[in-house]
Amino acid sequence: MKTFVLVVNRLAWFVPTLLGLLAIVFFISHVIPADPAAFVAGENATPETVAAIRARLGLDQPLYVQFWRYILSILDGDMGRSIYTGRPVVEDLLSRLPATLELTLVTVLVSIAVGVPLGVVAALRRNSWLDHGLRVVTIAGLAIASFWFAILLQLLFSMRLGWTPLGGRVEGWGPEQITGFYLIDALILQDHEILLDALQHMILPVVTLAVPATATIVRFTRAGMLNALQSNYVLYETAMGYPRRLVIWKYVLRNALIGTVTQIGLIFGILLAGAVVVEAVFDWPGLGTFAVNSILSSDYNAVMGFTVIVGTMFIVVNLVVDILHGMIDPREVR
């Protein structure tokens, strides 16, 4: 029952949160000194042609009128047409969404698989050379700029050593579209060649995004472990003769992961934002590349559609994080 109340409470904040996000992005995107009507008309267009296109796109209306009309169209499931591609924004976003989700989910899984064990080891060997080394590495991982790190990886592993592809999702055509996730589609079709090719293309983008994400998970897991190890119940269970491994992995880690789970939800949103730069560097055909091209062409509808999709995913992920909190520690459910 408490979980149901939690879900209803979070969903009640979904609409105002998304409306606030849309309002901010809408007004910021419309006050920048760029005219999408001039972009559509071309360099040699006359002022009359630009004015006609502006009227056709509704850009001659006051901002609040444009925003209200956009909200009404969103409710009808229509995000307008992209100036950049000429297709409905919904189609563009849905065609690119699997690429970004696949990259983000694989990065999150890799970060959890590496970060949680390292955080546990760092806490259990506090102030050892391993702990100090991990702290230095995690600080460096958080400080590195993603675009700079991505270019370095390309220069070393793609251009100099030739171990990995330079960019893209696969070499040539991808697998038959079933889910849009190349790894899953290749497994379903049992196409091991495309599966291996997709994994090779994913290595550098995943490493670029996973370094800061893993560093964050290591730091929060370590902090949670140290706090849990000093709890009274750990001292009691140790005094009762429970095996140390059992105490750590069954009791301590469960309580230590509460803060880590929260960070994983935030990391998902950060990765979606970071994917904009990383996808552009690696020519990854996802939402990030689409967003960059849309911003450069002042494609308001596409930028707003990207905001709706990313904002919705971020809110849903945070809802899942709250539910996981309740599963890990029922006291967290309010």
From TrEMBL:
Q: What SUPFAM superfamilies does the entry give?
A: MetI-like
Q: List the Pfam families hit by this protein, alphabetically.
A: BPD_transp_1 (PF00528), BPD_transp_1_N (PF19300)
What GO cellular component term, any one, is given?
plasma membrane
Q: Where is it predominantly found?
A: membrane
Query: Where is this protein found?
Result: Cell membrane
- Please indicate which superkingdom the organism of origin belongs to: Bacteria
The portions of this protein that span the membrane are 12-32, 103-124, 136-157, 202-221, 256-282, 302-324
Q: What is this protein called?
A: Peptide ABC transporter permease
Taxonomic path = Bacteria, Pseudomonadati, Pseudomonadota, Alphaproteobacteria, Acetobacterales
